[in-house]
Design brief:
It comes from Phyllobacterium ifriqiyense. This is NADPH-dependent curcumin reductase CurA. The chain is an alpha/beta fold and about 325 residues long. It folds into two domains: about 1-120 and about 305-330, Quinone Oxidoreductase, Chain A, domain 1 (Alpha-Beta Complex); about 125-275, 3-Layer(aba) Sandwich (Rossmann fold). The protein is about 30% helix and about 25% strand. The strands form three sheets. Strands 3, 4, 5, 6, 7, 14 and 15 form a seven-stranded mixed beta sheet that branches. A six-stranded parallel beta sheet has the order 10-9-8-11-12-13, with helices on both faces. Helix 10 links the parallel strand 14 (about 305) and strand 15 (about 325-330). The chain is globular and about 60 Å long. It binds NADPH dihydro-nicotinamide-adenine-dinucleotide phosphate. NADPH dihydro-nicotinamide-adenine-dinucleotide phosphate (NDP) binds near residues 153, 154, 174, 219 and 244. NADPH dihydro-nicotinamide-adenine-dinucleotide phosphate binds near residues 244 and 276.
């Protein structure tokens, strides 16, 4: 069993030495358990938070423990009445090639319905995050302007496409011309702005002549600074993520709070953070709507699949710097 464990807590940027790769015996299931062979491992920005020993909405990964993560797995030895060998499941088994489960938290997957990897992407946690955050908090109306960054990733790309399905204009912010072309030409965003451009703020302003009604916050930092002056009265801001801050790199030293509070008051802004699992009661609606949109081609998705568990640390460090192009997934084995 190959396992990747947290060797040390990062100081600032994550480094290869924060991870350690280990070999261990393949575990044996007891009565009531299944042995899982991991096929796909999802890599997600939240994992950066789990590497720190800071109070958050979830406990940190302990030093020397296997890195946490969502996985798609095959049951290869079942001693559990609810599962048989050959079943495919969504599990939370982490960065390893085999795992034991007592069935808690497993969800069966049907490979005939959708490619298995989508269970950690468009049909899984990131797709659900976009759907619930945008529709519950953002509430885009026809003709309104919705802005989202990290717009070629699984959350942002879905936010923009759903915004358009609701009749809003979708403006995506992404890193580099290739990602911008993709969201505009393949996904149908109304405009795409490269946040690496020297005149990024100016371009964003030109793309939003009527201001911004919904800003789906994935990033923070310099992107927020460009968005903030363009917010309209009664704008809604679902705060989903702040990836620019995860790796400890916001050295601008800016105090944004006085301006923010002034405008919250003056413009009646609604700013609400959320963690997707708060909206668990919306799962059936999400599954139905997203299934329909995928089938009709109204929503498209892109995956960035990296071969081999040993490449997970490097791929994860790249994710925090925008090297991924689409939902980042490790293909562990067939
Ligand atoms: P992505 O696959 O989109 O990867 C993150 C992307 O963020 C990178 O590819 C990069 O894209 C962009 N990025 C990184 N640093 C910066 C920066 N300094 N400025 C601007 N963009 C940056 O990730 P996800 O779609 O999985 O996640 C998007 C956000 O949603 C994250 O903040 C994540 O934490 C959050 N999230 C929150 C959840 C919740 O329940 N609240 C659940 C799931 C995700 P580019 O090259 O385009 O800049």
């Amino acid at each position: 069993n190959t396992r990747i464990v947290l060797a040390s807590r990062p100081e600032g940027r994550v480094k290869p030495g924060n991870f350690r790769i280990e070999e261990a015996a393949i575990p044996t299931p007891r009565d009531g358990e299944v042995l899982l062979k991991i096929l796909y491992l999802s890599l997600d920005p939240y994992m950066r938070g789990r590497m720190d020993d800071a109070k958050s909405y979830a406990a940190p990964v302990a030093i020397d423990a296997v890195m946490e993560g969502g996985t798609v797995a095959e049951v290869i030895e079942s001693r559990h009445p609810g599962y048989k060998n050959g079943d495919f499941v969504l599990s939370h088994s982490g960065w390893q090639s085999y795992a034991i489960s007592d069935g808690g938290g497993l969800r069966k997957l049907d490979p005939e319905v959708a490619p298995l990897s989508t269970a950690v992407g468009i049909l899984g946690m990131p797709g659900f995050t976009a759907y619930t955050g945008l529709l519950t908090i953002g509430q885009p109306k026809p003709g309104e302007t919705v802005v989202v960054a990290a717009a070629s990733g699984p959350v942002g790309s879905t936010v923009g496409q759903i915004a358009r399905l609701k009749g809003a204009r979708a403006i995506g912010i992404a890193g580099g011309p290739e990602k911008c072309a993709f969201i505009r030409d393949e996904l149908g965003f109304d405009a795409a702005i490269d946040h690496h451009s020297p005149d990024f703020s100016e371009q964003l302003k030109l793309a939003c002549p009527d201001g911004i009604d919904v800003y789906f916050e994935n990033v923070g930092g310099a992107v927020w600074d460009a968005v903030f002056p363009l917010l309209n009265t009664f704008a809604r801001i679902p705060v989903c993520g702040l990836i620019a801050q995860y790796d400890g790199l916001d050295t601008s030293g800016k105090d944004r709070l006085p301006h923010l509070m002034r405008d919250v008051l003056k413009k009646s802004l609604l700013i609400r953070g959320f963690i997707q699992r708060e909206f668990v009661d919306q799962r059936p609606a999400f599954t139905e709507d997203m299934g329909k949109w995928l089938q009709s081609g109204e929503v498209k998705y892109r995956e960035d699949i990296v071969e081999g568990l040993a490449n997970a640390p490097e791929a994860f460090m790249g994710l925090l710097q925008g090297h991924n192009f689409g939902k980042l997934v490790i293909h562990v084995t067939d």
